[in-house]
């Protein structure tokens, strides 16, 4: 397994994985991802914030990161954190606990970038995802009603989100 930045050649595969993930979400949850703007992902790629996990010469999983997420994390955004968004797994690789692999990678990434927390959010109150992320080492911080979603992807509009974080200890 190898983790590296995505590049512009990956953009069609990233969107294919997003569509597969959205289709899966529609079978399980009332809230699902909207169609994301290609410009959003292109910017993340250009800024080295879009990631891929390669397994058997295949993009097995993708996700995005940022160091700033004020509309979701509000006053907590002042904390030094890496935020993980839009984890999407290739269907042939589901069940491989890629979140655990992402967590291990993110711990090192956070340390290298002098961040104290790894954070992620999900839209809604989803007991299955809450249990999964807490088993993966995240602390569930509770639900938060978003106040200002202008400019965020459509699934955040008027949403309540589940917030998760993991504190990183420096050696």
TrEMBL record:
Write down the SUPFAM superfamilies for this protein, in alphabetical order.
Acyl-CoA N-acyltransferases (Nat) (SSF55729)
- Give all residue intervals belonging to the N-acetyltransferase domain: 1-171
Q: Which GO terms describe its molecular function?
A: acyltransferase activity, transferring groups other than amino-acyl groups
Alphabetically sorted, this entry's keywords are:
Transferase
Q: Name one Pfam family in it.
A: Acetyltransf_1
Protein's UniProt name: GNAT family acetyltransferase
């Amino acid at each position: 397994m190898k983790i590296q930045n995505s590049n512009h050649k990956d953009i069609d595969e990233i969107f294919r994985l997003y569509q597969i993930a959205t289709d899966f979400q529609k079978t399980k949850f009332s809230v699902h991802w909207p169609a994301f703007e290609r410009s959003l992902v292109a910017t993340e790629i250009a800024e080295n914030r879009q990631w891929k996990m390669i397994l058997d010469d295949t993009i097995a999983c993708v996700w995005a990161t940022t160091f700033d997420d004020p509309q979701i994390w509000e006053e907590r955004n002042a904390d030094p954190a890496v935020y993980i968004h839009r984890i999407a797994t290739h269907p042939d690789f589901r069940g491989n606990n890629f979140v655990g692999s992402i967590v291990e990678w993110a711990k090192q990434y956070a340390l290298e970038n002098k961040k104290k927390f790894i954070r992620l959010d999900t839209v809604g109150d989803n007991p299955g995802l809450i249990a999964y992320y807490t088993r993966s080492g995240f602390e569930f911080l509770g639900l938060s009603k978003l106040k200002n979603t202008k400019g965020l992807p459509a699934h955040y509009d008027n949403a309540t989100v589940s917030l998760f974080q993991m504190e990183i200890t420096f050696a």
